[in-house]
Write a structure and sequence with these properties.
Elements: E1 3-7, H1 14-23, E2 32-36, H2 40-56, E3 62-64, H3 69-73, E4 78-81, H4 87-100, H5 112-136, E5 141-144, H6 149-158, E6 162-165, H7 169-181, E7 188-195, E8 198-206, E9 209-210, H8 212-228, H9 233-236, H10 243-252, E10 255-256, H11 260-263, H12 274-280, H13 287-292, H14 300-310, H15 319-328, E11 332-339, E12 352-360, E13 363-366, H16 374-396, H17 399-408, H18 410-415, H19 418-431
Length: about 450
């Protein structure tokens, strides 16, 4: 049976969600699930919940908690990365130091100074994982859930391991658009492509009906025209505030896959000062504060009780579906982050793109998309420039490329002079030195 190793298994709830997803598939219920985390006590908390799920449902899966990473990876068929190198402490520096310079990142895990430095830390860990995988499980598939997704997947591929990165933004946004249009989700089909957190829905259909004109009409009325009345859209419509994404749709013609709060930090147009932020996003949302408030026991008891009561049903996360398809040959289509190599014609061939992928016993096979609409490709290329420099900086230990990566981030470049930017980056290097060994 399959050996499935989760690296970063001590995280808050999500690793246990992946375990539950795996156990929901009959073909995987005898698997060995190996839970590794540099903090064995945190991994043990997840393992306790996993074993209770196995026992409650009378399954034969084995749950192991090795204390050495090489033991966890030895002979693995699938490796799932869910880690955040440096944990909440490093994350605090990612968002806290830039805020002193006027760069307010609601999430800070994709682009900008927070995304770049999280990427530097992550690629350092991925270099070690990739070296172990090439030796101990060379045929294993690395399933990447850690952000920054594009930077991590790009680097992992260059480090010589089979990689697919998974996110839920395509699933979440496609369901949201169906709700906004009051269309049953199961009747919707779509095409999406771009980069992670900024992939574009270039078709959206119900049978033969093209729903994109309705998407533009409905979202503009609810999230742009409502703002012109002096009321925020979340005051007028229970679906929430999507003014940022709707503005980007008006710019490009197409809706993209990440929330307005998250997307607002990628561009120079939405977060230049407090008043501007408030006009687009009246209700503050801060992911660092949310993460800081998590219970240290991960709420495992409540989670397990709910999973036992409700039965084993896979979530919308693609990871377990990929593993089941590889084991059983069941053909599915998922959205994954992979090296471009001609999948999207008007994006660089070596970058990481998010596109539809067929998964079955042959593995993960990306589907060629073609060309994105010109404005969509242009915005993605701006992001790819930052990602490329961050990947090269992380793999080569080149501090100068870090300055350049952050300088080319649209929001950072709009707010800071180059001397101020260099000062901020130096402070981030100093604060995060324990996790950045490649930079000396």
């Amino acid at each position: 049976m399959a050996k499935i190793t989760i690296v970063g298994a001590g995280g808050y709830v999500f690793p246990l969600t992946l375990v539950r997803d795996i156990l929901a598939f009959e073909a995987l219920q005898e698997s060995t699930i190996c839970l590794y985390d540099p903090d064995p006590e945190r991994a043990a908390i997840t393992a306790g919940g996993a074993r209770r799920l196995v026992d409650a449902h009378g399954l034969g899966a084995k749950v192991e908690v090795p204390t050495a990473r090489r033991e966890a990876l030895d002979g693995a068929d699938f490796v799932i990365c869910t880690f955040q190198v440096g944990g909440i402490e490093a994350y605090g520096y990612d968002v806290g130091i830039p805020r002193e310079y006027g760069i307010d990142q609601p999430v800070g895990d994709t682009l900008g100074p927070g995304g770049v430095f999280r990427g530097l830390r992550s690629v350092g860990a991925l270099r070690e994982i990739a070296a172990d995988m090439r030796e101990l499980c060379p045929d294993a598939l690395l399933i990447q859930y850690a952000n920054p997704m594009s930077i991590n997947c790009w680097a992992s591929s260059e480090l010589g391991v089979q990689t697919v990165g998974l996110c839920h933004s395509v699933q979440h946004t496609s369901k949201m658009l169906a709700r906004e249009l009051d269309v049953p989700y199961e009747e919707v089909t779509f095409d999406s492509a771009g980069v992670n957190h900024t992939a574009w829905f270039t078709t959206f259909r119900r049978g033969a009906e093209d729903l994109l004109p309705r998407v533009r009409e409905v979202m503009t009325a609810r999230h742009l025209e409502s703002a012109a009345t002096g009321l925020a859209s979340d005051e007028l419509y229970a679906g929430g505030n999507e003014r940022v994404r709707t503005e980007l749709m008006r710019l490009t013609g197409y809706f993209h896959t990440e929330s307005s709060h998250h997307a607002s930090e990628y561009w120079p147009w939405f977060r230049k000062d407090v008043d501007l932020v408030g006009s687009y996003l009246p209700k503050r949302w801060d992911y660092y504060e949310i993460c800081s408030a998590h219970s240290p026991d991960h709420n495992v008891d409540d989670y397990v009780e709910g999973s036992v009561r409700d039965g084993l049903h896979p979530s919308e996360e693609y990871g377990a579906y990929i593993i089941d398809s590889a084991v059983t040959g069941t053909r599915r289509v998922i959205y994954g982050n992979v090296v471009n190599r001609g999948l999207v014609d008007n994006l660089p061939a070596d970058c990481c793109v998010e596109v539809a992928c067929v998964v079955d016993a042959l593995g993960v096979r990306p589907v060629r998309y073609g060309s994105l609409p010109p404005a969509c490709a242009a915005l993605n290329t701006v992001q790819i420039n930052v990602q490329r420099l961050a990947v090269r900086a992380a793999l080569e230990g080149d501090r100068d490329l870090v300055y350049a990566a952050v300088a080319l981030d649209p929001l950072s470049g709009a707010l800071l002079t180059l001397p101020r930017l260099r000062e901020m980056v130096d402070r981030l290097f100093a604060a995060e030195r324990p996790w950045l060994a490649a930079f000396g």
